[in-house]
Specification:
The protein is mainly α. It has one domain. It is 65% helix and 0% strand. The radius of gyration is 23 Å and the shape is globular. The N and C termini lie far apart (67 Å). 40% of the residues are buried.
């Protein structure tokens, strides 16, 4: 039997690590995981594919005739649905920051982003306007090619979002929308432009100054959300909120040496996000646990799926899935049940995504050395996922 004095007991308690101290000391940090995998999160590829396929699946319900199922899905899975695009933006902010901090050049940064985003986007927009539209339009071709909406549709390439083409998909269950994924183009472009400004001012290169600005912005936005409902989600988050997620991703990259990767923190973050997202005033605060969940998944060594991860197909899946599903619904009325549409759309969309990656996106990224021969290519995965789109 031990009769230790109170002083001895106090000293022993001080020496014994608390749960939090033990958690922090025994769990790997985001930075240590990235270092282990040479700068690339082992689960990021699977995460991008998973998010893109989840958005495709929701679009299958949205574009079908079964509005009863759509109402059920929107009610039951509302929290997960509205989190999909913000997770893409948080992931993009995390990855893009790595590229920005390595290059430290606005010209290099914007060139990388342009080579990643614009070529595939331009091809998708052109195919919809010059191939798909003329095939399915209900108006004469002479009217189609002279309509102002036809010319305006090409503005999508530079972020002037247009959803319609003359006479296209007018009688579909979700009518008159060619590619609903494109709505995220503007906030995505704003993210890159603001990042360029942060690089010009060197704010993004300083953890202290960026964190200070981020904290002030979070407080201000949360107050606006509490008092005036600014940023409160409806069917989806408004653009200003998903843009904010991009900067939460930047903050996580800056503090990657202090943020630990642990399943208990993931579970707590997921529960916190689930219960706070629907509440008034939590649109911005909920971004912190959601971004933790996003980055945590990216740190997991998820087994690769050879067919889906032979290239980075997530952007192509995101970009092409909506017009492909609208076309299937238009051409084959029997596919207007969501599960049949999903079964037909997945392989066809993956095929288009693979062609886009191997014929357009990968060759475009290969031009980095030609445009910027003096710059070493980033070692971390340099892909920023949209938006959403």
């Amino acid at each position: 039997m031990h009769n230790d004095s109170p002083e001895v007991l106090d000293k022993r308690n001080e020496q014994e690590p608390s749960f939090v101290r033990k958690l922090l000391s025994t769990s790997p940090t985001i930075e240590s995981v990235l270092r282990q995998y040479r700068g690339a999160g082992p689960g990021f590829d699977a995460l991008r594919i998973g998010l893109a396929l989840a958005i495709l699946s929701y679009h299958a319900v949205l574009l079908s005739y079964d509005k009863t199922t759509l109402a059920f899905v929107n009610q039951t899975f509302h929290i997960f649905i509205i989190a999909l695009v913000p997770m893409f933006f948080a992931l993009s902010g995390f990855l893009v920051t790595g590229s920005a901090l390595r290059t430290r050049s606005v010209r290099v940064f914007l060139t990388y982003r342009g080579l990643r985003i614009f070529p595939a986007l331009a091809v998708e927009v052109t195919l919809c306007a010059l191939v798909l539209g003329p095939i399915v339009t209900s108006v004469p071709l002479s009217t189609y090619f002279t309509d102002k909406h036809f010319f305006a549709y090409f503005g999508n390439v530079v972020g002037m979002v247009r959803m319609t083409l003359p006479g296209v998909f007018l009688d579909n269950p979700h009518p008159n929308v060619v590619n609903g994924s494109l709505w995220t183009l503007q906030p995505e472009f704003y993210c890159y432009l603001i990042m360029a400004g942060l690089m010009l001012t060197s704010i993004v290169f300083s953890r202290f100054w960026f964190t200070l600005g981020f904290a002030i912005s979070t407080v201000a936005l949360t107050m606006l959300n509490v008092l005036y409902g600014y940023g409160t989600p409806g069917d989806l988050f408004p653009p200003n909120v998903i843009l904010y997620y991009f900067f939460v991703g930047i903050a996580f990259f800056h503090w990657k040496d202090r943020i630990v990767v642990h399943p208990a923190l993931f579970a707590a973050s997921a529960l916190l996000a689930y219960f706070t997202l629907p509440l008034q005033g939590f649109s911005y605060l909920a971004a912190l646990p959601i971004t933790y969940c996003t980055v945590y998944i990216g740190m997991l060594a998820i087994p690769r799926i050879p067919l889906l991860q032979a290239g980075d197909y997530s952007y192509g899946i995101y970009l092409f899935n909506f017009p492909i599903q609208q076309s299937l619904v238009y051409a084959f009325p029997s596919l207007r049940e969501w599960w049949m549409l999903l079964a037909a759309a997945v392989p066809l969309t993956v095929l288009f995504a693979a062609l886009s990656w191997h014929w357009i996106e990968k060759p475009s990224l290969g031009l980095k050395k030609r445009f910027l021969p003096q710059t070493k290519a980033p070692t971390m995965t340099p892909v920023a996922r949209p938006a959403a789109r």
